[in-house]
Request: fold
Amino acid sequence: MSTVRSDITGSLEDYLETIYRILGRSSVARVRDIAEEMQVNPASVTPAMKRLSAKQLIKYSKRNYIELTEKGLFIARRTMTRHNLLSRFLTEVLGISREQAECDACAMEHFLSESSMERLAAFFEFLAASPELQALIDTGFGNCPEGKEELELLPLTDLEPGSSRRIARINAGQKIRGQLIDSGFIQGAIITLTRPGGTDLPFIVDLDGYDQELPGEIAECVLLHPVQEQTGEDDYEK
Amino acid sequence: MSTVRSDITGSLEDYLETIYRILGRSSVARVRDIAEEMQVNPASVTPAMKRLSAKQLIKYSKRNYIELTEKGLFIARRTMTRHNLLSRFLTEVLGISREQAECDACAMEHFLSESSMERLAAFFEFLAASPELQALIDTGFGNCPEGKEELELLPLTDLEPGSSRRIARINAGQKIRGQLIDSGFIQGAIITLTRPGGTDLPFIVDLDGYDQELPGEIAECVLLHPVQEQTGEDDYEK
DNA sequence: TCTATTTGTTAGATTTGTCTAACAGAAATA
DNA sequence: TATTTCTGTTAGACAAATCTAACAAATAGA
Ligand SMILES: [Mn+2]
Ligand SMILES: [Mn+2]
Ligand SMILES: [Mn+2]
Ligand SMILES: [Mn+2]
Reply:
């Protein structure tokens, strides 16, 4: 009892979670059901059950139904709770599709620490208790939130060489936006203009200590906060 | 170029990310540096470099400095961007400590899909553009957010047998709160009171299709939304 | 230049997690 | 009851990721 520190791999947590889910609907859990639910070969389930059994997380004897022990039930529930918290965050807050959210959540759930889990739960409590926040998020933030200081934002192309700004947002379609984000152009990152470009000459900027080239038409999608920043190392907290 | 679909394990992504980080500060990357940065034995680095090299993600020849290829650089940057997004969410929004956030983020980063990544980036843009939201979050939500409808919340102990409610929040100290959350008692989950308890008799509630026992003093920490819910399966969207 | 230290690689082992193919036991059906 | 089908296990293979111990190459120091 007491501190049931997991000490168990993500895969085994998934097996426990699956067993828990199956037992939640159909009084018994069989190798077959588990294999089907997890999209895995039944021959992979047997050794997994042996590993779980060795760790005293399930009651398992050859060719018999599988039951969770007290410890196994605890881990199964906790894993599922993490799954639900992450999945809800992805769907309800970020607006990701159900399927994608399930997939991301089930992969990330194994790495959310106890404290992060607790805070994420608190976040939902806060959200539910604060209608104004709920409303803000429910509107769904598009690619271009209509901030009031919109006019003050500075396109990267207008930045003076050598000066540093924080990125405010990326104003571009799906594809270019995706490319820029992949490359690290996210809100809050600090950019220094190393060399301005032109119609044919790409801009060179410093981001995370790496120089990156940006063609003019892409650079103008990067909108910066108007306030000049210190040229310190990449450092997100003020 | 085009779609550089990762097709690479989390461990290899970490190696790329580490190489990227090292090259950001010290012109060359050696096996030694990588091993040190990743807290791993140098003998583990060599085979990893071979795997990366086979996948054309680094330029590597025995006993030589390691360089990222175009593809490797792309994945490294994207991994680091995910890392930063998650880390910032954990610290800036949830209020997790730096170290814990780094740890969680570096583990989860490998499983955040392209779309979730894009939406998380949009979330930060939205946050930066909306001072009221920023302010709400900056206050830091404690364990007990002061909602206005506080008085209307119903302790689990006052619920009528057989009726169902959504959990609004858990009103308890660290320890009990943690236990309840681990067991799935999070905001939005639907609870049905199966059997009311008393001073010595634990309450029995249905949550996720499983019956759970709760001693009275724990049950009264579970505060419910006042509106009655359908007794459907666990189903988070209305 | 010769030796000592640092750095990197190899060999060999281990754990985890997956697969296919073959087999064995149980249940259903004829 | 005999046979077929379903279900579960085993055997054997493989890839990834790590380790320790031993060795080899390169560099630095004397
Ligand atoms: Mn999972
Ligand atoms: Mn899951
Ligand atoms: Mn990582
Ligand atoms: Mn990372």
